[in-house]
Structure formats: C-alpha cells, structure tokens
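Help wanted!
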Amino acid sequence: MAEPLFFMIKISATDNKARCGEIKTAHGTFQTPTFMPVGTGGAVKALTSSDLEECGVQIILGNTYHLYLRPGAEIIKKMGGLAKFTSWNKPTLTDSGGFQIFSLKEISQVTADGVEFQSHHDGSKHFFSPEKAIQVQHEIGADIIMQLDECVPYPVNENKAAIAADRTYQWGRRCLEEHNRLKASPKTDTALFGIVQGSVYPKLRRQSAEQTVSLCFDGNAIGGLSVGESKREMEEMLALTIELLPKDKPRYLMGVGYPEDILMAVSYGIDMFDCVLPTRNARTGSVFTATGPLVYRNAEYAADERPLDESCSCKVCQRYSRGYLRHLYNQSEITAMVLASYHSTYFYQQFVRNIGESIEASRFADFKKAFLEKYNSDRES
Amino acid sequence: MAEPLFFMIKISATDNKARCGEIKTAHGTFQTPTFMPVGTGGAVKALTSSDLEECGVQIILGNTYHLYLRPGAEIIKKMGGLAKFTSWNKPTLTDSGGFQIFSLKEISQVTADGVEFQSHHDGSKHFFSPEKAIQVQHEIGADIIMQLDECVPYPVNENKAAIAADRTYQWGRRCLEEHNRLKASPKTDTALFGIVQGSVYPKLRRQSAEQTVSLCFDGNAIGGLSVGESKREMEEMLALTIELLPKDKPRYLMGVGYPEDILMAVSYGIDMFDCVLPTRNARTGSVFTATGPLVYRNAEYAADERPLDESCSCKVCQRYSRGYLRHLYNQSEITAMVLASYHSTYFYQQFVRNIGESIEASRFADFKKAFLEKYNSDRES
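Answered by r_m:
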C-alpha cells in the first residue's frame, strides 16, 4: 500500500487511555479529540461556513449519498472539491453513503457486489459497488473518505451480523484497492478509513477489528454503534474493539453522540466523533447546555430573560434570551433554528476543546467527573 | 395635542423634491430615506439581530397582528418592549394590525367600531377597536406606531373606497385620543403616524390626506398602494397625496417595494419604506443585485463560481458562489435562505444609503438614472 503523502495523526499527550493531538490533512490541521458537525448536503443545517468558523469547528462531515444525488459529484469536482464548493476551505470527511442507503430499507437492495438504491428525490435507480463509493468520494474530494460498509440495524441476529461484517471486510479490500489506484494519479493526500462492524457480538467485533486492521487503512472507524443498543453494550463493544486498533492511526467512533457518550469514548482513546444531535435537536426545540439539555421550546421559558446557557460565551448566549428563542420557535421562525443550532454547535466545540486541554494537563478524569456532575445537576434536583 | 418629547425628523439636504436627513427616536436615530426590513413576528425571517446590524439596518418593522397573537403584547411588555425583547435595541415601528386582519377576508368582519377577526393559529376570536390597536402597540412598545386604518383591495369601487377612507379618518381621531391619553402617563416618546387611504381615486386621496394632516400626527403614511394597481396609478396617487403632507414631518410609503418604486417615491419626497420583498424573494430563490433580480435557484447557475452580485461587498458575496447557493436552495437547506436573505437585506440598505448620499451631493437624478440603467441592463441585453 502506498504511504500517505501528508495525512497523519500526532498524539501530543495521553492521560490513561485518553489521548489528544492533531491530525494533518491537505486542507489543514485539526485538533483531537474532535467533533465533526454533520453537513449533510454541503451545509450544516441552518448554519453558514462563517458560523462554523466562529464556533471553532475544525472539520465537517458531508454525506456522500446526498452529495452524489445533489448536486452530483461531477459538479463538486468542477467547483474545486467539497471544501472549496462550500467555501469552508478547511478539512472535510465524507462517509461512504452506506449508512443512508441502508436506512432506505424499502428502496435499497444489497448483494455481495454492492448496493442498489433509489433516489429519495425522484426514484431514479443507482448502484454503489465498493469501487464506485470510492470513485464518487474521490470526485467529491474530502480529505478523509470512508470505505463502503454494511450497517445492520439493532437488534440483529448473529448470523446476519456475521454476514454483514464479512461483507464489510471484503468491500474494505476492494475500496482500498480502488483508492490506491485513484490516489496514485494524480497524486492526492486523501486518507481512507476502514470500518469495524459486528453489532453487539464480541466475537464478530474482534474478528472485524482484526480484519480491518490487517488492511492498513489510514485510520480506523467503529461503526454500527449508537443504533439502539444500550449504553452498556455500546461501551463493551467500544472497549474490546479499540484495544485491537493501532495507536498510531486516528480512531473514529461514527455517529456518536451525547456528551456523556463522548466522554466515555474519549476515556478509551477515541479521537474523532460526528453526530447530527446538536443541530437536529436545536431545530426541534432543545439545546445542549453545561447543566444538561434545555427544551427551550417549553412554555415555562416564555418570559425567561436568561440566555440558553448561563455559562456559555457564544454570541447567542451573549445576546438573546430564552424567552425570545422560545417565541421564535413557537412562531416557526427560521431564526430560532439558526440561533439554537449556533449555540449547540459552539457548545460541542467548546466541550471537545476542554476535553483536549484536560488530557494535555493530565486531569481528564477530574474534568469528566466535574462536567457530568454539572451536566446532570438539573435532572437530579 | 401634546408635543412629542423627543421624536423628530431633521432634513439635512434636499434635491428637488427628494430629501435626506435623520429621524430621532427613543431608541436612537436612523438616517432617511430608510428601508425597514419586515420582522413579522419579532425577527426578520432567517436573519438574526447581528445580521441586521451587519447589513446596516437602522429600523425594523414588527407586525402587531402577529405579535399580539404570539407571544402576546403583555409578554413583550414584561420583557422590556419590542427592541429589548428581540435584542435589537434600536428603533422599531409597528403597523396597526389592520393590513394583516383585512387580508384574512373570510375570518374578519369590519364595523364602524373596529374589526373582529379570528386567529390564524387557533381560530380564537379577537376584536381591535382603534383604541385597542393603540393599547396593544403601546404595550409592544415600538418607537413609531400606526393608526388603525381600513385597507381596501384593488380594484374597489369609489363608494367602498370612500367609506373605508372616511372610516380611516374616524379611527385616526380615536387612535390619536387614546395615544395621547396613554403617552401622558407614564410619559413616553412613542410617535403615532396617521395613514392616508383613498385607493386610486384622486378626490378621495386628497380628502383623506387633508383629513389626516388636520389631525396633526407625528408623521404621515400613505397606505393602500402597491396592492395591485399599475405603476402609473401608484405614482399619480403618490404625487398628488404627498403635495398635501407637511414637510416637517416624516412621510412613509407603506409596503413599497421594488428598487425602481423606491427611486420614484424618493423623487417625490418619501422618507420611509418597508417591504417583505427582499427577504421573501430570497427565501423563494431570487435575490436583488445591481444588475437586476437574479433567480439563483435556476439550473444555469449550478456550476457558476461568481458571487450572487459581482459588485456587492457583503459577506455572502465575498465568500459564496451562485453554484453553492443554487445547490443549497435545491436541497431545501435553511442555509440558502439565510445567505440569500442576508445579501438582499444588505443590498437594500446599501441602496438607500447611496440614495441618501446622492441627495446630500445634489446628484440624485444622476444616481437614479445610472442605477436604473445598470439594474435593467441584463433584461435589455
């Protein structure tokens, strides 16, 4: 396998298993642990690229499924790639499209050779082989791309989970081959991550981890968690999987999650996270705060002059009241979604920055304890 | 009538009939001619108060009908009035609610004593007498409030227009009386504007103007235009009405409009404008530019790297391409509405600022000609 020209992770400190550092990409460097807001179709919903910069975001995730359908990979390539097209100009990552495709159960069909699916826009039929998923992602041009994997729902029986995990491995080999072919000419710094599957079955997780690692991807991701299993199951699977992943490569827990999940995962050594939670919840009336989730749409806040989060220094909390936000939400004003999404995005970035600093200072355990005490305080009182 | 404590217009320059200057209110001074973005329910759709400041907005219009129903005038009063509630903290104006109520034809009923209407939210019944319209606006607490008037549709026969104009006059008297009672204790600087009606009938317009002026409001508005009549009819009605309005008070053309209408109206001496056009059109795929309206949702812009308006210095035009905006619109991304609304709001503010500067420099006619030539150039070519 060709060595990456440029892509690398540099761990600057560890605190027990937790670690912090930075990852270097062709579009710049981002600090880890990192949280990637989800910019589904080329924008994090309700936010602008300037908003994301102000919030301290360092890397954004784009969904290949959405971008492939609209505007189409060839348009993005023509416009200079995802970062330039979205005027973000900083690191980006694309998923392989698998997760979205498999969630369209009734309009997708999977075979050993790939997955056939219908556009949710117009019903047109498309087929993603492992090679095609890589070709499309190379056209979109993110700094980090993901192998095509088969995501199984939860719960699933062990046999089905085993078939999916094996298929993920076979697809991983093919993705890697296609990736190496494409990145050789012209030479690019695109990094390809493999994905460990195996549902909640320890044996499958171990096997999938070993197979994935054997392929020597630029980074390794843990998929198929936070899909309905219990928090205990999630932690068990994460704990046994991560032990098998190399320390000199980025480790990415896909689709996670809540602040408490992130703290747990960082304590095992995860570097990268992504999740729609902060912005999706913001759009439906709830934000994350230092004292726990705040359902700002509730009538009790109608005349509340306090900011969403009294300890937050974001520009929304510096200026707007819960009463105003609650009213805007109640009026279905777009501005409510903008302001709430901004705050929660800022909150998550501040959160992972604080985690990194606590690891750097060898006080991650104290930080975690103090954060959770405050975060759960409202619910306990 | 009690003299306003504070509210006043100061004309700094005239150029033929066009004039520029400033209007002083309790929440600060704004330059004229001014264009007020419409913040229907306490927010200009898709924009934040910071966005509006960045765009150079100096005064915002709120709709009494919407604010009265949600969050309710008492909540806004409790939160310190409209400017504080919305964290805008600069001048505001509220309409009387009449225009919205009359547009709910099937669920409103008008009598000499006022208008009964049903909430579009829950069907609950409400009644606005002239006094009630003033009471509600005093609670909302804008710097400039409007009398209750009867807006007639276009076309309307002369008899119906005459009845509505007369009712507007009778209601104006009652509004003024209630306003003077309310502003005496506690003393407030709220300004009340009267409204001239009369549809497209010169005789009615003249009579309504004379009656309105006789009541000595703090400012005078021309209502019932830009409701479907031809541009020629609008100009004729405006020209004959404005001649009867005092020069030492603000003159406000309600609900107008397109850049070419604003230029025409300024040439007759109008000081204030409001309209939903820039933000409503932005949300439906079209923005205003120096070379005319640009339907950025069109497929022809899919791979267009140019900004929305090549001569614009707003932060949207400095950063984002038509291709990206077109894609976001096509994906129904909220971010498209945010970016397009920002640009068109900036465009309108820059436009009225340039108008003011040209009047100050006694070259308004040249400015108007040059603007229209460029604005219409795309359509002529």
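OP: Thanks! One thing I noticed: The mean pLDDT of chain A is 95.
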